[in-house]
TrEMBL record:
Organism expressing this protein natively: Sphingobacterium humi
HAMAP family with a match to the protein in the record: LpxK (MF_00409)
GO molecular function, one term: lipid-A 4'-kinase activity
CC per GO annotation: plasma membrane
Entry keywords, A to Z: ATP-binding, Kinase, Lipid A biosynthesis, Lipid biosynthesis, Lipid metabolism, Membrane, Nucleotide-binding, Transferase, Transmembrane, Transmembrane helix
UniProt family annotation: Belongs to the LpxK family.
Official protein name in the record: Tetraacyldisaccharide 4'-kinase
Enzyme class: transferase
Reaction(s) the record says it catalyses: a lipid A disaccharide + ATP = a lipid IVA + ADP + H(+)
A Pfam family recorded for this sequence: LpxK
InterPro entries to which the protein is assigned, alphabetical: LpxK, P-loop_NTPase
């Protein structure tokens, strides 16, 4: 696979030129960007998926929901609807997207909306809200947010940075200059001093003034959603791990570190499960010879599962949270961008 991606280098060069030109046209003011009166925080990344945007959105919801009339606005990736839509608890992931549905279920008292056109979405929300969290909107240069938080997962900054299709970056690294705050995610528990210095130096070449912070994933206790009377003790089960996310490797590492007995069944990010998929999942579960067994998935995957298709099978999901170094300083830095 790596060799094939290097063979695509000419397409990477062409893609890089297109992205560079687009950004230059915005920088020169030829393409216009709109700033709104309502406070807005963009949470985004330069690479494709898997940087930990959703856990950070939930972290910010938890922090700000008591201070502001709050809304989140997402594209609603994978939904089959179009345009602006408010997310309701009765919605499905095919109607609103898995991540917005997750936000609504975890925080039913706030406004959660989807719109592929973020500028139009803000216009719909701004009169009734004081702060809008824009999930995965760093590339949406038609809007100028009050604060832009740019995420990089830790391994990506210790590897060569290449654009698609050879690499995993969808935007040029020099766009780091537009970030107000930079958060390095998915860090190990102990960050070697040399790695920390390498990362900071690399970022400072593009953005000399933004606050740089480091964070890690915190896996929380599993939540039972079918066929279990209480939260399962995972060490007592043989696990069929079902994932349809961009980067499941940190979850694999966590389960392995806990010495849990599991086997993997992987699907693409935001995958909408078909009837054939459910048959494959059920067959993989049935093939496990252990008496005590269950399906474990991520919280995002749980939004897309039709439990009726897996009737009688115990299922749980494992939530995650962001654990941020120098948390007080991180939050204070965000707050100083918000005028009220």
């Amino acid at each position: 696979m790596a060799i094939v991606r290097w063979l695509l280098l000419p397409f990477t060069i062409l893609y890089s030129l297109i992205i560079w030109l687009r950004n230059k046209l915005y920088d020169l003011g030829i393409f216009s960007s709109q700033q709104f009166k309502v406070n807005s925080i963009v949470i985004g990344n330069l690479a494709i998926g898997g940087a930990g945007k959703s856990p950070l959105v939930q972290y910010l919801i938890q922090h700000f929901k008591g201070q502001y009339k709050l809304a989140t606005l997402s594209r609603g990736y994978g939904r089959k609807t179009k345009g602006f839509r408010l997310v309701n608890l009765s919605d499905t992931a095919t109607e609103v997207g898995d991540e917005p549905l997750q936000f609504k279920k975890n925080y039913p008292d706030i406004t959660v909306a989807v719109d592929e056109n973020r500028a139009e979405g803000i216009q719909m929300l701004q009169k009734e809200h004081q702060l809008i969290l824009l999930d995965d909107a760093f590339q949406h240069r038609k809007i100028t947010p009050t604060c832009a938080i740019l995420l990089f997962d830790y391994p990506s900054l210790l590897s060569p940075i290449l654009l698609l299709p050879t690499g995993n970056f969808r935007d040029t690294f020099d766009q780091t200059k537009r970030a107000d705050i930079i958060l390095i995610t998915k860090c190990p528990d102990h960050i070697p001093a040399a790695d920390r210095e390498t990362i900071i130096k690399k970022l400072r070449k593009q953005q000399p003034s933004a606050g740089i912070y480091f964070s890690s994933i915190q896996y929380l206790g599993p939540i039972a959603i079918q066929g279990l009377q209480e939260a399962p003790q995972l060490r007592n089960f043989h696990i069929l791990l079902l994932t349809g996310i961009a980067n499941p490797k940190p979850l694999y590492a966590f389960l392995s570190s806990e010495k849990l007995n599991y086997q993997k069944l992987t699907f693409p990010d935001h995958h909408n499960f078909s009837q054939q998929d459910y048959q494959k999942i059920a067959a993989a579960y049935a093939a496990i010879p252990a008496a005590n067994k269950l399906i474990l998935c991520t919280e995002k995957d749980a939004q897309r599962l039709d439990l009726s298709q897996l009737s009688g099978i115990p299922i749980a999901y494992i939530p995650i949270a962001s654990k941020i170094e120098n948390e007080a300083a991180f939050l204070e830095n965000i707050q100083r961008f918000l005028p009220y």
